[in-house]
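Duplicate of earlier report; FAD-binding FR-type domain-containing protein input re-posted below.
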Amino acid sequence: MQIYWAKVNKIIDETPEVKTFLIDRPEDFTWVEGSHTHFALEGFNAGDKPNRNLIRHMSISTLPHENTIGITTRIREQCSEFKRILKKLEVGSKVALFKTHSNVPLRREDKNVYLLSSGVGLATFRPLVLDYFNRADNVNLIHSLNIDSTKDFLFPTVFKSAPDKNFTALFVDNRKDYYEEVKNLASDKAALFYIVGSDEFLVENMKVLRDQRIKPEQIMLDKRENQRHELLSSVYVGEDSFLVDPK
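Output:
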């Protein structure tokens, strides 16, 4: 396993609770849209065993052509040891990156794509939208729907409706409006649905989609295949189609 150590070159306060850490890109570090990485703080591998309290799976919120690795995360006042250290991180600090992988690349199948997210989940979708803006081949349109009760919506310059690019973005601050909109989107029976958020959020969205007769293979989750299978099977009980790998 290769561990990349790199310096933080900029810290952006996206909202009062959300920060983006921009990290120098090592020369041979590569990734694709929708990727996540193991993001570790100094000292995580100082002992005989890795200190898992200093490691988190984080989505990469940038694309390679931006030549910086973006990690966007929410840091609340009451937070874990990892987040407390992260909050105090300064420009010039070193962090480790390893085991980078994408579970949610943009599927180019001449279909409409709906991005369903909660709060900072938009960090996973930012690269998909930028990749679509750069090359719209075989994607009919993209619509982003995000719920955030703080009302401090992320990346407003990216997630801004652009009719000329067949891209629309909608932000809501309450569950009722959000799930009503998910129902409306599910009237598009041939579309692809990407969902990012907590497991509870994933399951609630999948239940709405299932009730609207959206098939499991139309759903993309930011999970490893075994985790995806487990979540889908808990919602689509008795259906075999979730066994199909959509990629």
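The chain has two domains: 4-102, 111-243.

Merging into the original ticket.
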